[in-house]
Amino acid sequence: MAKGSILIVDDNKSVLTALDMLLSNEFEKIDCLSNPNVIPSKLDKEAYDLVLLDMNFKSGVNSGNEGIYWLNQIKEKRPDTSVVMITAYGDVELAVNALKTGATDFVLKPWDNTKLLATVRSAIQLSQSKGEVSSLKQKEKDLKSSLNSNQKYIIGSSPQLMEVLNLVRKVAKTDTNVLITGENGTGKELIAQEIHRLSQRHQEMLVGVDMGAISETLFESELFGHVKGAFTDARIDRAGKFEVANRGTLFLDEIGNLPFHLQSKLLAALQNREITRVGSNQSVPVDIRLICATNRDLPKLVEDGLFREDLLYRINTIHIEVPPLRDRGEDILVLADFFLKKYGAKYEKAHLKINGQAQDKLMRYNWPGNIRELEHAIEKAVILSNNQVLKADDFFLKPVTGSKSTPNTLNLEEMEKQLIRTALEKHPGNISAAAEQLGITRQTLYNKIKKLNM
Ligand SMILES: Nc1ncnc2c1ncn2[C@@H]1O[C@H](COP(=O)(O)OP(=O)(O)OP(=O)(O)O)[C@@H](O)[C@H]1O
Question: Does the record carry Zinc-finger as a key word (predicted)?
Answer without folding.
Answer: no
